[in-house]
Write a structure and sequence with these properties.
The complex is a heterodimer of chains A (296) and B (162). Chain A is of the alpha+beta class and 296 residues long. Chain A has three domains: 7-56, Uridine Diphospho-n-acetylenolpyruvylglucosamine Reductase, domain 2, CATH 3.30.43; 62-173, Uridine Diphospho-n-acetylenolpyruvylglucosamine Reductase, domain 3, CATH 3.30.465.10; 180-289, 2-Layer Sandwich (Enolase-like, domain 1), CATH 3.30.390.50. Chain A contains twelve helices and 14 strands. Chain A has a five-stranded antiparallel β-sheet. In chain A, strands 11-12-13-14 form a four-stranded antiparallel β-sheet, with helices on both faces. A three-stranded parallel β-sheet of chain A has the order 1-3-2, covered by helices on one side. In chain A, helix 2 (37-42) links the parallel strand 2 (28-31) and strand 3. In chain A, 52% of the residues are buried. In chain B, 33% of the residues lie in helices and 15% in strands. Chain B is built from five helices and five strands. Chain B has helices spanning 27-34, 91-98, 108-121, 127-133, 145-161, and strands at 6-12, 15-21, 53-56, 59-62, 75-77. Chain B folds into two domains: 6-80, Roll (Ubiquitin-like (UB roll)); 91-161, DNA polymerase, domain 1, CATH 1.10.150.120. Chain B has a five-stranded mixed β-sheet, sandwiched between helices. The chains are: A alpha+beta (296), B alpha+beta (162). The A-B interface holds A 1-11, 16, 20, 31, 34-35, 38-39, 42-43, 50-51, 53, 55, 80, 103-107, 109-110, 190-192 and B 1-4, 6, 22-24, 26, 29, 45-47, 50, 53, 56, 59-62, 64-67, 69-70, 114, 117-118, 131-133, 135-136.
Chain lengths: 296, 162
């Protein structure tokens, strides 16, 4: 239950961190908040020879509002910041609502949003939130610099589009224009546990109140966070009410095929996906038509 | 640039310490084995049970999921730092005794540190909020009801004392 021996680097600049990673690509790991990697190392499932600790990289510790209205969150920003940061509360209500479901407060005080995303646990809430929001992921190495769309980022269980020497240095959360309502709902056995099923909704309305765009992303429903494209498309152009939302939920239930786990069977998770979709869409439409983008 | 040892300079319960350690050492082992502060208990060692919760710069964290180097430059409070200056139990500790909120006591340091930060942020919680705040800590003896009672009593007493 103690990590294997490793050599430790605590670079003070991004450039130093990326250089180290380029030099020791195969034998090194980046450490951000450590709330997933450190237990894995305690079990010795991960035994990096070199640990590149990002906790001293103060240049990536920012939440920033861009002129486009988008918000950028740097690699070392902790989950707690998503709970208390004014920019997140005002501009990204879905992230603010969902973060309270991410583990327990002790974990949120330490874990980072970008570290969580780079870990790519399919049962984690935030990958689904990023899919629903169409967030973008900024990957950088000493030689390369590129942006990856959320839909292309998550490849499998603990597997992302990041390549060898790359680091996820920040994410960009797109701006939310008028008439958008969001909602995050999940069911777990105990507050802070992984959800048996969870859904993130981003709903955009036309001026006449009909659905202009609908995004539904689910956690713990597959090998990665997943969208339900057929269900999303089925709502476009329609009014959003009890009846239409129920129809969307029915499509979700045919579209998803969640794996069994110890807490819930596939059939039960499918049932939950329908129920949560219906409730979350009704909450989202209430928020969108109220003009308020804010969460509860 | 690669280190096999790391020099940690930190403040724990108001006292400064400096130690040279292997960077793989967890913060809870650092507190217990290097500083002899054995009040912080090590339960699961992988971030599930909450027994090792301490306050780092005022916020509760799991000390088994931090490396000792992360203490460098931090201001840490452990269970040993909670009692009043004269050694008397503080209000929260008193409330735990009053309401029988512990039996074996193994998990108690983690609960007390967690709740200390919780009540600082939310001095007037309802029962449901307390349950949620405690959800990251496991207790095998009490069934939690008495712990919730103690937190509510402590909150009420602290409000009355103000």
């Amino acid at each position: 239950m103690k990590p294997a021996r490793f050599k430790y680097a605590n670079p003070k600049t991004l450039n130093d961190a990326l250089s180290l990673r380029a030099e020791y690509e195969d034998e090194s790991r980046f450490l951000a908040g450590g709330q997933s990697l450190l237990p894995t190392m305690a079990f010795r499932l991960a035994q990096p020879e070199i640990l590149i600790d990002l906790n001293w990289l103060h240049e990536l510790n920012y939440v920033r509002l861009e002129t486009s209205g988008a918000i950028r969150v740097g690699a070392t920003v902790r989950h707690r910041e998503m709970q208390v940061n004014r920019l997140i509360i005002d501009h990204q209500p879905l992230v603010n609502e969902a973060v309270f479901q991410v583990a327990h407060q002790q974990i949120r005080n330490r874990g980072t949003l970008c570290g969580n995303l780079a870990h790519a646990d399919p049962s984690s809430e935030m990958p689904a939130v990023m899919l629903a929001l169409e967030a973008r992921f900024h990957a950088k190495s000493i030689d390369t610099d590129r942006w990856i769309e959320a839909v292309d980022f998550f490849l499998g269980v603990f597997e992302t589009a990041l390549e060898g020497p790359e680091m996820l240095i920040e994410i960009e959360l797109p701006s939310m224009p008028e008439r958008i309502g969001t909602s995050f709902m999940e069911l777990s056995r105990r507050p802070g546990d992984y959800a048996m099923m969870g859904v993130a909704v981003v709903l955009t309305l036309n001026k006449d109140g009909t659905c202009a765009n609908c995004r539904l992303a689910f956690c713990n429903a597959s090998d990665t966070a997943v969208l339900a494209p057929k269900a999303m498309a089925s709502l476009v152009g329609k009014p959003v009410n009890e009846e239409t939302v129920r129809a969307v939920a029915n499509i979700v239930q045919t579209e998803l095929d969640p794996p069994d786990n110890i807490n819930a069977s596939s059939a039960y998770k499918t049932h939950l996906a329908g129920v949560l979709t219906r409730r979350a869409l009704l909450k989202a439409v209430e928020r969108a038509s109220g003009g308020a983008r804010a969460a509860a | 640039m690669l280190k096999e040892f790391y020099t940690v300079t930190t403040v724990v319960n108001g006292q400064s310490y400096k130690r040279v350690i292997e960077p793989r050492m967890s913060l809870c082992d650092f507190l217990r084995d290097e500083l002899d502060l054995t009040g912080t208990h090590v339960g699961c060692e992988h971030g599930v049970c909450g027994a090792c919760t301490i306050l780092v710069d005022g916020l509760p964290v799991r000390s088994c999921l931090m490396l000792a180097p992360h203490a460098d430059g931090a201001d840490i409070q452990t269970i040993e730092g909670l009692a009043n200056e004269d050694g008397e139990l503080n209000v929260l500790q008193w409330a735990f005794r009053e309401k029988h909120a512990l039996q074996c006591g193994f998990c108690t340091p983690g609960f007390l540190t967690t709740i200390t930060a919780f009540l600082a942020e939310n001095p007037n919680p309802d029962r449901e909020e307390v349950r949620e705040a405690l959800s990251g800590n496991t207790c095998r003896c009490t069934g939690y009801q008495h712990i919730i009672d103690a937190v509510l009593l402590a909150a009420e007493t602290m409000r009355a004392d103000k």
